[in-house]
Amino acid sequence: MKRVIGVVLVLVYLFPVYWMVSASFKTPAELASVRLVPSSLSLDTWTARIFDDPRVLRYVLNSVIVASGTMVLTLVLGIPAAYALARLPLRGKPVLMLMMLSSLMFPAIMLATPLFVVFSRLGLTDSYLGLILADTTLALPYSIVLLRPAFAAVPRDYSEAALIDGCSPFGVFARIIVPLVMPGIATVAVLAFLWGWGDLVFALTLATEDSMRPVTTGLWGFFGATTSDWAGAMAFSTVAMLPPLVVFLLTQRLVVSGVAAGGTKG
Amino acid sequence: MRRLTPYLFVLPAVLFLGALLVYPVVLNVLMSFQDVSAGNLLGGAEWIGFENYRAAFADEVFVDAAWHSVTYAAVSVVVQLVAGTGLALFYAQSFPGARALRSLYMIAYAIPVVVSAELFRWLLDGRSGFVNWVLGTRDVFWLADTSLALPAVIGIQVWLGVPFVLVSLTAGLVAIPREFGEAALIDGASAWQRFRWVTWPLLRPVVAATAVLSTIFTLKSFDLVWIATQGGPAGASEILPTLAYRLVFTSFLFGKGAAIMNVIFAVLFVLSLLYLRTDRRTS
């Protein structure tokens, strides 16, 4: 009985997602008359709005580049910093940690104006690098906050033994410690990717040229405030949802543990 | 050299955040005291003291948006906390598949907010929207109606926020030793009594921390309202982040927009201090 209620609750909650995907396969006539299960599957919307429109592929590629770039840069900067803050003798640790924690609370929208000003001066608007840098500013503090406890949990004996055996401090970090915190690193990688993929604010403000748009602003550009092409909008939404959904389904556990540790979004 | 090595590990991250987080925030504060517009964006703007703040506070549009922000955050956080707590308690019972079902809620978290907002724009559409069909109402344009837009956006925000509450309260529930509930059961406590006197006192700090975090996320959120209504119709669902964005990027009033962002930031800063306090008590 509990199981039945549990399943029904999930189905009700996720119904909008089903409705979105199924709409993209409906004919215009079926879309107008509300039908829970489509009587036939039509690929017309997908052909006309997705496959035959080269801009869609461009947007998806842009999102892949920006999200992956954000992920890589966040890891490159975040892993050593989290390690040092957890394990190495440093002055000013409390100040740095307070800075990381308080930037979790930062609205992306607050950074948008000054970054727009600075990036305009540097010629970084309408570039992948600009978007990646902007997305990393908020993903990085989060990753450090999340990774620090993982590094702190590695028993000290491991690194001490390696140091005695003649390993350099960097060797200890790269060969001994990092492999032990792989689950934490994977969590951060997935969350940084989802973050970069979902960003709207920086895409709106820093990538105004159509060829540089990621899927979020691409979707909004196609099906903005005045659209009535809901089948097209839902097909495009499905495309924009699919990569993060696949990443999530493959790494559910990691995402859940990351969010439980204070996950921020948007 | 040995003593300097640790600093080399943090240096790249610190330099990066200094250049792209701290410096922009300082710039934002400076801009809020200047008369910055599209013409003098690259330098040479006049210093005008608190004029931007005074103008913002005196502006009816700002006052309305501030109220909308408070309503939006307060109502959606309360509703999503109640719903999320209920779901967390339900899925914390041991029945086959409970864990797997619970993590399915996180799908809504993985989907970009832009996509969810676009989806709800259609669900709440007046002509072919599913919500009208379910309620049997006709031609109600939820997001284009001045008295319905804000409640509708709050409804969407609840849908978006439930997974976070569910996941973080589940983490709190798991931390409560099973023996406590079992001992109460042996003593003949009813389900309600066990919740009221065993679970709730132990869960309360987690609920408090989750409430503060959810409030912060909701107050700073921009994507949902921007896609769903752009703050409209006629400012009916305008919140501070969308107002600030509009001032900067469509009216090019950089100084006034920066002033509003700083107001948002000041509120969030106070809330995050509150969070750090509640969180310290939990751990």
Automatic annotation (TrEMBL), chain A:
Q: Does the keyword Transmembrane helix apply?
A: yes
Query: This chain belongs to which protein, by name?
Result: Carbohydrate ABC transporter permease
Matching entries from PANTHER family are given as: INNER MEMBRANE ABC TRANSPORTER PERMEASE PROTEIN YCJP, MALTOSE TRANSPORT SYSTEM PERMEASE-RELATED
GO annotations under biological process? transmembrane transport
Q: How does the UniProt record describe the way this protein sits in the membrane? A: Multi-pass membrane protein
What transmembrane ranges does the database entry give? 59-83, 95-116, 128-151, 172-197, 230-250
Q: Which InterPro entries match?
A: BP-dep_ABC_trans_perm, MetI-like, MetI-like_sf
The record's subcellular locations are:
Cell membrane
**Matching Pfam families:** BPD_transp_1
Q: Where is the ABC transmembrane type-1 domain?
A: 60-251
Hey, which family's this protein in? Belongs to the binding-protein-dependent transport system permease family.
> Main localization of the protein?
membrane
Decide whether keyword GTP-binding is in the record.
no
* CDD domains, A to Z: TM_PBP2
Q: Which GO terms describe its cellular component?
A: plasma membrane
Keyword annotations for this protein, in alphabetical order, are: Cell membrane, Membrane, Transmembrane, Transmembrane helix, Transport
From TrEMBL, chain B:
What is a single cellular component term in the Gene Ontology annotation? plasma membrane
Name where it's found.
Cell membrane
Principal place of residence: membrane
- UniProt keywords, alphabetically: Cell membrane, Membrane, Transmembrane, Transmembrane helix, Transport
Membrane topology value: Multi-pass membrane protein
Domain ABC transmembrane type-1, by residue range, is 66-275
Q: Which residues cross the membrane?
A: 7-26, 70-92, 104-124, 148-176, 197-217, 253-276
Cite a single GO BP annotation.
Answer: transmembrane transport
Question: What family name appears in the similarity comment?
Answer: Belongs to the binding-protein-dependent transport system permease family.
Q: PANTHER family this protein is in?
A: BLR7065 PROTEIN (PTHR43005), SPERMIDINE_PUTRESCINE TRANSPORT SYSTEM PERMEASE PROTEIN (PTHR43005:SF1)
Q: What is the protein name for this chain?
A: Sugar ABC transporter permease
Organism field = Lentzea tibetensis
